[in-house]
Structure to design on (1317 residues):
């Protein structure tokens, strides 16, 4: 049952994608309904899976395995652990809201939605796959439609044409794929039996030297998609050029594929390699955080600000991964989720603003809160999550990532923490420039707030940020069920001390703080 | 006595003439004719090897039949293409058609 | 009431204002029944107040209330909880927060009447109250930090309440970013402490901290234990410096006056800005680590010296700038900065006495400063039609028109000046007396004991004591100047002539705050009520009230008052038709360079603009340029290289299929020949042999 449901998340968008191509283009409403159905059906499925996942047992559940090419050891093998489920849930949320947010996409809707759903099907596949061959296959399915989606439906910016952005994005990601392919072949050939099964690959003993090099390939290969410095430059141009739903999916979900790949293949299969390169990963993550935030600060184009903030936030994801301990990995996955929702919200709102204001230049905006209070509120909530304000999901994620990193490389954690100030500066300035201040009635006559489906999309995302922020326990427990056991090292330098303190505290007389002693 | 080498020589000559024609003729129809020659050279070789090496095997006949079919199809398709090329470019002179130039 | 005592009541402390906030904000979003919002938030605050009363920790008992829930847990070693830990200090602070919050909300009912976003305003106020209570009753570092940030964002939202004003939008951003600057230090301190102790729970942290201070095994890889015990307090102090507007991060507070005046009273005078002081008081154990017996360790002395010196600098800078301000709220803002410096100085004195004295001044200040702000708000409300209702140059002679405001404001002024028997007198003298005692100077009848080191070093305490006395004089001057400029003389503008007294919710709140501004000082001082309640200790010699200090401070205060009176008493003549522009302020007669220096706010703002804003922006531009040109340039460059190579290779392609075919055939032939040659040379001849065998068979 569970395995079939996992397969359903992959097949539903795929089926919808194919069906869409068979519908005549003039049936606009039918096309949208089919697309919505294909996307939205994954949401209850993902929720059901998350609820049914046995957190006590942990590990991979909902397994389904069908041999495909037995002679090469390829099988269609899906299963999910807490981490995968969290990300599957994220994907389901983003694609559903993404379809809603691009309801008004008019130009060649059929092909647009078809490609979008194809892409999403690949994303679900990557998160569910337990077979390296299929994982890579799904990965490519997720990456390639992006070229057409940006190239055909994108918008050119002042500096870059949409074709340039699409080309750069595709080529850089394919460059990463080449490295991944080499790494996958190396992993495949390094065993005596021929199998792409991740469970089996995890048990194969490997030489440290081998692990180090292959990990580097995996890290850089997937890292390109995760936007690691200096391979991030596809991201600002790509996100700025892409249409709303594509930006949402790409920044919200696709970038997480990169981080997920590093976690699944890199850290899980090659733990020694991960240990060897942890400091490098930490350094690059820190650079990402600070460099991305600084770059965002200098931007005036709304989409570029958000795009660079994604680079900065993906740094937090990679920072958590680099810590290689349980708190840090939890933080990393939480940040994947949180950033996915947050950036989905950002791009949805920015798309709406652009659609109505016909400009993305923040210097030409101001006082928009008067005409679009709903968008202003949701954008502010997203902004608060972005700089990690308590009460939003961003806080939980960032704090866990910083804490994890602090246990491993305190100096890097110290530097990254400075990012929270820079983030606050550019986020608040963005809000100030766009929404606050006096409103120029003459310049923006047809500005209006979000409506119906658009409204539902951004409110759902904003509310989710707050709900997770105030009550993160269920999600963290889910993620932790997947993460625990992969991490190494202790949770705290003084965990021994704390355990002894915990053990003795019920009996020991509790002292009052100094100066209050009686 | 005429043996296998003679057949092979004739086959090679046919192939060489066909290749030369295919590479040098300017007219697209002449190129197609030359390709037919090359295909027939292959057919001749098949039959010669069958006859002199293993007269019990049936593969050679199969290949030759397939070869003939392919040749017929190729001629039909090739001529259709040539016709279309002529309509598009107004010529069948291959030197004047260089759409593949990098 | 009885049922409120216990866990239910404790949770209600947090839950009631939070629920009020939720309701208020929901009303704001749906834009229906906005007038219900104050009723909801007021009753929520009152309910929380009842819960606080029901759970008052008695004098003899330890902590009465201590409940918590797990918020987040990862494995065994990482647990974050949300809890209510209501000890004596927390209870006093909760009392201040809830009572001021209640009165400010009451006041706002009239003050904010007719504003758009009425419900939003009350929702924010309730949210602030909930966050502030959460901060005060936090039993773990995480909750402390989280609520610390939440009150910050409430402050942001409320300063920017009139978001359509560019100045308000800018001020709210400035306030948040500047305090965030300090919060980085706070967060790092929390990380250091939590990882060293392996827990966020304050009690466990305290225990671990003592062990580290006592020279246990090195707790953190990064720093030695010796460094740890001064680094952590300093890092946490960074947070307090930001939030409590201490030098050099005080620059946000005057700008924060862009918010509605009741907000200034609640957040930027009485409660939130005192959070830094409260935090240091709460974590006093961290600053007073004893090395042996009573002696304070060297590390703690460093920390306390820093606290005291920062406080002294802040008190002095704030008071001097307040003298030359014209905006009534800015005078009060700088006054708040100055008074917060006083509290920090008291904390720097260290030990239980420092803790209780700082809290003492915090409580009295909360009441009289809230009163002053609300009185200022009452004046501004009366003048709200004028172009700049905050400008004191357009006021004057208001005491006839607004007697209640004038009287209550006068009480607040006297409390701020510190004349007996008003509240400020008692608490300020306690601070000065404590500092003099720690300094060991042996003047004014105080026999300090400089040898038993309990707080900051004696020389530092001496500086603090002298600064405190000077600031007393300055405070008396600017406070009196404020009252005389606003209420005395004759009106200097049309609006001032026609002003009327504010409606009853405003005057009620004013009167309600005037009572504690008179009485709370003596009441808490009497038998050292506050000290014994907070610390459970008998008051030591350092808290004794000395006639010498009282007389000196009062004399200095009187000098300030009289000086201001002499300068401002003559009613400035109003010339018809030129209202507001003819009044020259006597302080402008001070030496020109000094005036320039003061009106430029000691150039601290400018410095921050240069260092903080412009330099950071320049770095950001360089980074962005680097990204577009160098990093992306490399990417585009590699693309160009490939394209160029392709172009060169492409030239060999004529587009002639026949040429391609010739190349293919030629290549094949060449390969066959090469293979044949190779096999002939090596003598293996496998393929040739196979071919030959086939041919000859």
């Amino acid at each position: 049952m569970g395995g079939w449901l996992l397969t359903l998340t992959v097949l539903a968008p795929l089926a919808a994608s194919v069906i869409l191509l068979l519908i005549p283009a003039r049936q606009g409403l039918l096309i949208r309904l089919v697309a919505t159905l294909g996307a939205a059906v994954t949401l209850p499925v993902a929720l059901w899976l998350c609820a049914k996942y046995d957190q006590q047992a942990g590990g991979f559940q909902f397994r389904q395995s069908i041999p495909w090419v037995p002679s090469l050891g390829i099988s269609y093998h899906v299963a999910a652990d807490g981490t995968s489920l969290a990300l599957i849930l994220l994907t389901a949320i983003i694609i559903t809201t993404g379809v809603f947010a691009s309801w008004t996409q008019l130009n060649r809707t059929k092909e647009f939605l078809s490609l979008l759903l194809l892409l999403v099907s690949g994303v679900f596949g990557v998160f569910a796959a337990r077979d390296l061959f299929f994982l890579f296959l799904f990965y490519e399915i997720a990456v390639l439609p992006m070229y057409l989606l940006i190239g055909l439906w994108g918008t050119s910016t002042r500096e870059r044409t949409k074709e340039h952005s699409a080309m750069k994005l595709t080529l850089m990601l394919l460059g990463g794929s080449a490295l991944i392919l080499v790494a996958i072949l190396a992993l495949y050939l390094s065993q005596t039996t021929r199998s792409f099964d991740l469970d089996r690959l995890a048990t194969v003993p490997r030489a440290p030297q081998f692990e180090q090099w292959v990990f580097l390939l995996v890290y850089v290969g997937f890292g390109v998609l995760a936007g690691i410095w200096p391979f991030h430059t596809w991201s600002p141009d790509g996100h700025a050029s892409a249409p709303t739903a594509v930006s949402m999916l790409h920044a919200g979900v696709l970038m997480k594929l990169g981080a997920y790949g590093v976690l699944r293949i890199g850290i899980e299969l090659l733990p020694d390699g991960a240990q060897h390169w942890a400091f490098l990963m930490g350094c690059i993550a820190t650079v990402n955080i600070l460099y991305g935030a600084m770059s965002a600060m200098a931007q005036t184009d709304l989409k570029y600000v958000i795009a660079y903030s994604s680079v900065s936030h993906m740094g937090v994801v990679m920072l958590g991964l680099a810590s290689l301990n349980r708190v840090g990995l939890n933080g990393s996955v939480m940040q994947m989720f949180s950033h996915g929702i947050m950036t989905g919200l950002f791009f949805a709102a920015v798309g709406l603003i652009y659609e109505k204001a016909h400009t993305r230049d923040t210097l030409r905006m101001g006082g928009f809160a008067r005409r679009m209070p709903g968008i202003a509120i949701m954008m502010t909530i997203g902004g608060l999550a972005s700089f990690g304000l308590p009460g939003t999901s961003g806080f939980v994620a960032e704090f866990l990532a910083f804490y994890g990193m602090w246990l491993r490389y305190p100096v890097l954690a110290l530097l990254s923490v400075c990012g929270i100030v820079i983030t606050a500066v550019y986020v608040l300035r963005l809000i100030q420039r766009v929404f606050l201040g006096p409103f120029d009635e003459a310049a923006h006559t047809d500005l209006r707030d979000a409506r119906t489906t658009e409204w539902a999309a951004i409110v759902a995302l904003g509310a989710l940020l707050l709900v997770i922020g105030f009550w993160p326990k269920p999600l963290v427990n889910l993620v932790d069920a997947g993460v625990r056991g992969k991490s190494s090292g202790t949770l705290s330098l003084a965990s021994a001390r704390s355990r002894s303190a915990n053990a003795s505290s019920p009996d020991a007389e509790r002292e009052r703080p100094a100066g209050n002693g009686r | 006595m005429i043996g296998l080498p003679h057949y092979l020589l004739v086959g090679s000559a046919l192939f060489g003439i066909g290749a030369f024609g295919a590479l040098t003729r300017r007219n697209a129809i002449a190129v197609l004719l030359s390709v037919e020659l090359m295909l027939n050279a292959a057919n001749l070789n098949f039959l010669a090897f069958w006859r002199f090496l293993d007269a019990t095997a049936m593969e050679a006949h199969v290949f030759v039949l397939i070869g003939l079919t392919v040749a017929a199809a190729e001629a039909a398709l090739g001529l259709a293409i040539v016709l279309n090329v002529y309509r598009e470019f107004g010529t069948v002179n291959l030197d004047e058609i260089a759409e593949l130039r990098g | 009431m009885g049922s409120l005592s216990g866990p239910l009541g404790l949770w209600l402390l947090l839950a009631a204002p939070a629920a009020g906030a939720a309701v208020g904000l929901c009303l704001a979003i749906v834009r229906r029944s906005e007038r219900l919002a104050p009723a909801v938030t007021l009753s929520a605050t009152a309910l929380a107040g009842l819960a606080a009363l029901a759970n008052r920790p008695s004098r003899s008992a330890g902590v009465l209330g201590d409940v918590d829930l797990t918020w987040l847990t990862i494995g065994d070693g990482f647990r974050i909880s949300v809890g209510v830990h209501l000890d004596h200090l927390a209870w006093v602070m909760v009392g201040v927060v809830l009572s001021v919050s209640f009165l400010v909300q009451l006041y706002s009912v009239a003050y904010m009447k007719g504003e758009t976003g009425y419900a939003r305003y009350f929702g924010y106020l309730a949210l602030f109250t909930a966050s502030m209570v959460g901060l005060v009753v936090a039993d773990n570092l995480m909750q402390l930090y989280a609520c610390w940030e939440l009150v910050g964002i409430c402050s942001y939202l409320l300063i920017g309440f009139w978001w359509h004003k560019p100045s308000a939008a800018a001020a709210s951003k400035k306030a948040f970013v500047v305090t965030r600057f300090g919060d980085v230090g706070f967060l790092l301190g929390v990380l250091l402490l939590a990882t060293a102790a392996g827990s966020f729970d304050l009690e466990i942290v305290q225990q671990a901290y003592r062990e580290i201070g006592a020279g246990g095994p090195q707790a953190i890889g990064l720093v030695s234990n010796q460094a740890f015990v001064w680094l952590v307090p300093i890092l946490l102090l960074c947070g307090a410096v930001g939030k409590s507007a201490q030098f050099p991060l005080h620059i946000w507070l005057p700008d924060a006056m862009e918010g509605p005046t009741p907000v200034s009273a609640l957040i930027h005078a009485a409660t939130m800005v005192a959070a830094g002081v409260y935090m240091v008081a709460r974590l006093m154990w961290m600053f007073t680590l004893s090395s042996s017996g009573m002696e304070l360790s060297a590390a703690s002395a460093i920390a306390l010296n820093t606290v005291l010196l920062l406080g002294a600098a802040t008190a002095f800078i704030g008071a001097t700038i307040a003298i030359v301000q014209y905006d009534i709220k800015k005078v009060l803002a700088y006054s708040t900065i100055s008074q917060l410096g006083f509290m920090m100085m008291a904390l720097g004195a260290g030990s239980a006495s420092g803790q209780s004295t700082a809290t003492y001044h915090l409580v009295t200040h909360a009441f009289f400063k809230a009163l002053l702000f609300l009185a200022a708000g009452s004046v501004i409300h009366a003048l709200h039609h004028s172009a700049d209702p905050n400008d004191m140059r357009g006021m004057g002679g208001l005491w006839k028109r607004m007697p209640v405001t004038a009287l209550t404001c006068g009480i607040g002024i006297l409390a701020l000046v510190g004349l007996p028997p008003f509240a400020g007198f008692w608490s300020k003298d306690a601070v000065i007396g404590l500092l003099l005692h720690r300094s060991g100077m042996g003047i004014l009848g105080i026999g300090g004991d400089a040898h038993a080191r309990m707080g900051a070093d004696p020389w530092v305490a001496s500086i603090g004591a002298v600064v405190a006395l000077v600031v007393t004089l300055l405070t008396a001057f600017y406070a009196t100047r404020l009252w005389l400029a606003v209420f005395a003389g004759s009106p200097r503008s049309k609006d001032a002539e026609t002003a009327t007294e504010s409606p009853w919710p405003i005057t009620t709140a004013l009167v309600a705050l005037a009572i504690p501004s008179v009485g709370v000082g003596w009441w808490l001082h009497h038998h050292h009520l506050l000290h014994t309640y907070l610390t459970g200790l008998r008051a030591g010699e350092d808290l004794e009230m000395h006639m010498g200090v009282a007389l000196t401070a009062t004399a200095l205060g009187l000098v300030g008052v009289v000086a201001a009176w002499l300068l401002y008493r003559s009613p400035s003549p109003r010339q018809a038709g030129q209202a507001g522009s003819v009044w020259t302020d006597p302080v402008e007669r001070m030496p020109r360079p000094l005036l320039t220096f003061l009106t430029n706010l000691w150039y601290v703002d400018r410095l921050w603009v240069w260092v903080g804003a412009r330099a950071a922006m320049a770095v950001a531009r360089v980074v962005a340029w680097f990204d577009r040109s160098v990093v992306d340039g490399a990417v585009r460059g590699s693309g160009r290289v490939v394209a160029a190579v392709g172009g060169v290779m492409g030239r060999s392609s004529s587009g002639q299929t026949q040429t391609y075919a010739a190349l293919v055939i030629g290549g094949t032939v060449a390969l066959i020949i090469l293979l044949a040659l190779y096999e002939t040379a090596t003598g293996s001849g496998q393929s040739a042999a196979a071919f030959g065998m086939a041919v000859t068979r």
Q: What stands out?
A: Chain B has three helices and no strands. The mean pLDDT of chain B is 87. The interface with chain C takes residues 4-5, 8, 19, 22-24, 31, 49, 53, 94-95, 98-102 of chain B (CB under 8 Å).
